[in-house]
Amino acid sequence: MQCVKLPISVRVEINLLLLAVTGLALVTRLYGIHFPRAVVFDEVYYGQFLSLYMKQVFFIDESGPPFGHMVLALGAYLGGFDGNFVWNRIGAEYTSNVPVWSLRVIPALAGSFCIPLAYLLVVELGYSHFSALGACMLLLMENSLIVQSRFMLLESVLIFFLLLAVLSYLHFHKARNSSFRWFWLMICGVSCACGIGVKYMGMFTYFLLLGLTAVHTWQLIGDRTLSYGKVVVQVLVRFLALVVLPVIMYIGFFYVHLTLLYRSGPHDQMMSSAFQASLEGGLARITQGQPLDVALGSQVTLRTVSSKPVPCWLHSHKVNYPIRYENGRGSSHQQQVTCYPFKDVNNWWIIKDPGRHTLVVSSPPRPVRHGDIIQLLHGMTSRYLNTHDVAAPMSPHSQEVSGYIDFNVSMPAQNLWRVDIVNRESDREIWKTILSEVRLVHVNTSAVLKLSGASLPEWGFKQLEVVGDKIYKGYQQSGMWNVEEHRYGRSQEQKERELELKSPTHSDIKRNLTFMAKFLELVSKSWGNLYFWVNYPFNVMIINTMCLIHETFVLCAHICMLFSFLRSPAQRKAFGVVILAVLCSVYVSYHNLSPLTYGQPALSSDELAALRWRESWDILLRKR
Fold it and tell me: Where in the numbering of this chain does the MIR domain appear (predicted)?
């Protein structure tokens, strides 16, 4: 005990200026966030996902990763929201079960803490506390930043994590001898992962920090005062903190997302059959207990692997192609074959052995393997899937696909198809239900059965066109099919077979999909729609907001530079008066527009019209 020096004391330094700025930020962002008690702007969009989270129903948001939705869902969970609200229009009044304050408080807190982060960032860049205060006052009274922080939106959350990431890296870079240096680097990696997890727009800041890290690491490698071992450790730690950690966290967001959302929902059809079958309810109730191996005589529905323009199933019905199309081209006038985006009894096909007339599965079943030649018989109309050298109705460069009808007009049947299992592990792989991605190659013409994506006219009931593509190359999801529903056929007679096709399939076994398979499919859907978040108008607002913050920092830097050139006290006093006048004008602008920012007090139409300072501003009036 003699080594312990008494008394033990702790010295705490409190930046009262920073504390005051934080308090003002909390007041301006949190004041009256429960008002209006109605759906505002994109709350109608995020609220739908919020309800699905509360009910643990699967969904996919093609505009970005799930972490942002989970942040909003946390507020809903803490507020006791049960998910029961119809998010169908902007302006809809919230019911009593919706905890409005809890839904909006997390974005409001994130927006509030952006202000002290901006203060610390300006100081960390080497400018004075006076400059940091000026930057904070500009951001504090910026009405647009306040508005987007006060509602159930993700922009303030994104900006918070991006500012924290930049600030943490600057702390790390400057604190060369501090024991907390590596802590700041870890915080930077975590913040980058969270920013990207909220919106993919966060990648721009992430790439900026990676570029800075690359430059600083290169300088580190050239430092001859450091030993080889220390350099390797420094590079390795940077790689782990800024690359490995964000990747692990990014995958972790999806793991939590998929763990929470295990029930079947409205977005199932965007995913593959295997993905749908792994969810509780929906397709899983249908596909559980189905035979795994597709055999000769199997009754199947064939779903296209592609989900564009919409997921659909190979389909036929008792309607023929018109003899002539609107442009004057002729057709075979045989039975239409389409891709139908809804489950229907006309989606069922029978896998038939070309050398036999039987339509039932033998005992034991004879499985269909990669490279086998088969025929596909439409279950309800008994027409064979056929393609020939006749131009498709909407894609004249491809072949027409039809249900063959013998009109005795020198147009023989060409209904043999070769099974090509794309994701096979051996050359004699068995065709598997749900799991196998199959390409059906026409024996006579080598054309591939493919979804063109074009919609047929009224005579085709607006269903999607299926063609035979003779110039098919590489891996194209539109030419891949998988068996979704499957059973072994037991009825040879047409009427008995129709009754069998209309009856539900048997269910008793569950088939699971690994997390990584789900993750890769879900990410491919998100990254396949990058055009959405690049072109989505609200993401333009994020870019404008970040530009606003950047210009604020640049303005403060120029003010500091100009102030340093002023030598006499009189000049500096005059400059201070100018700065004070500018801040006062900013406050006047904030005060005048505060009714639009906070939605209160209520203004008349004339008072609202007086706030329309520019012709480009549109103020929408809602009459009660």
Answer: 291-354, 365-422, 427-486
Give residue-wise pLDDT tens across range 164-221. Answer: 999 999 999 988 777 788 999 999 999 999 999 999 889 999 999 999 999 999 988 8
Which residues neighbour 219 within 8 Å (Cβ) at sequence distance 6 or greater? none
3-state secondary structure 235-285: HHHHHHHHHHHHHHHHHHHHHHHHHHCCECCCCHHHCCHHHHHCCECCHHH
Of the candidates 51, 59, 38, the one whose C-alpha atom is nearest the C-alpha of residue 84 is: 51
CB 135 within 8 A of CB 119: yes
Tell me, what amino acid is at 422? V
- Tabulate helix, strand, coil % of the chain (nearest 5): 45, 15, 40
461 C-beta neighbours (distance < 10 Å), count: 14
Residues 6+ apart with CB under 8 A from 507: 285, 286, 287, 288, 289
442: which residues sit within 8 A by CB, 6+ positions away? 387, 399, 414, 416, 417, 418, 448, 449, 468
pTM of the complete model: 0.72
Could you tell me the two tokens for 213? 């890290």
Q: How far apart are CA 168 and CA 247, in angstroms?
A: 18
Helix (H) or strand (E) holding 147: helix 143-149
pLDDT higher than 60, residue 502: yes
Cis amide prior to 504 (ω within 30 degrees): no
Q: Which residues contact 307 (CB under 8 A, 6 or more apart)?
A: 269, 270, 271, 525
Q: How many CB atoms lie within 10 A of CB 31?
A: 15
